[in-house]
Amino acid sequence: MPDEAGAVPSAESPGEPGAEPAGSAGSAGSTGFTGESADEAALGRLREAFFRPSRAQLVVGVLLAALGFAAITQVRANGTDDTYKGYREQDLVDVLSGLAGTAQRARSQIDQLEGQRRQLERSQQAQSAAVAAAQRQAQELDILAGLVPVTGPGIRVTVTEGPRPVDVDSVLDTIEELRAAGAEAMAVNGEVRLVAQSAVESAPGGLRIDGKLVASPYVLDVIGDPHTLSGALQLVDGPVAQFKDAGATVTIQQRSSLDVTAVRPPSTQSGSE
């Protein structure tokens, strides 16, 4: 009974055919682990140290952190301005008072400079306006003196003689009425520019104006407001009535644009003065 109860495996296992010794199996397993490379083993140790640091490693890390913090604090301390470090409280109060006074003076100077700038801007604007006004006045004087051509709205008056010559007084009255009505520029037959100093004389074959002979029909181009100018000539006993009484024919055309190109040479203007 005892021999049949299971003693057979323990008795026969050492002498089992084909079985290898235990030492041989262990040797085969050891041969498999030695095949790992040294780099893999080192990487495993590094990983283990990183995720499960020892107490010595923790102490070293804390010391390094403290050393870095001390270095940063020292750098910041060296960069701090310690100019007023040794000043007493009263000295600091005096320094602050001085800075406040300096700031107030600086603000006052800024306000003063701003005022000067505004004054210069106003002066420049006034000067520009004065220059523009002077230029306009010079242009108006040149027009009145007959020194420059003029273009603008106006009227064209055509006087054609009848049986009798045109009376010089009627021509002068016409010029004066037009000038009083705001005529800016006038020319006769496109040749003679009329100005305040113009002289009109009767002459054989027509009229002599400023020394130049002009003949009928007399075409007078006038720059100004067309309605006002034509109304001034057609007053009762006005220029148109006078011409018609002398047997002349008068036509008045209002124009939106007229060109008065005749000008007076400077020499002629100087001689008339």
Give an overview in words:
This protein is an alpha+beta fold and 273 residues long. It contains nine helices and eight strands. The protein has helices at 7-12, 22-33, 38-51, 55-79, 89-144, 168-180, 226-233, 239-245, 266-272; strands spanning 150-160, 185-188, 192-194, 200-203, 206-209, 212-214, 218-223, 249-260. The strands form two sheets. Strands 3-2-7-1-8 form a five-stranded antiparallel beta sheet. A three-stranded antiparallel beta sheet has the order 4-5-6, with helices on one face. α6 (168-180) packs antiparallel against α8. The radius of gyration is 60 Å and the shape is elongated. 15% of the residues are buried.
Reading the helices and strands in chain order gives HHHHHEHEEEEEEHHEH
User: What is the typical, i.e. mean, pLDDT?
Assistant: 78
- Helical percent range? 40-55%
The CA-CA distance between the termini, in Å, is: 172 Å
**Rg calc:** 60 Å
Which blocks of ≥5 consecutive residues have pLDDT under 50? Answer: 1-35, 268-273
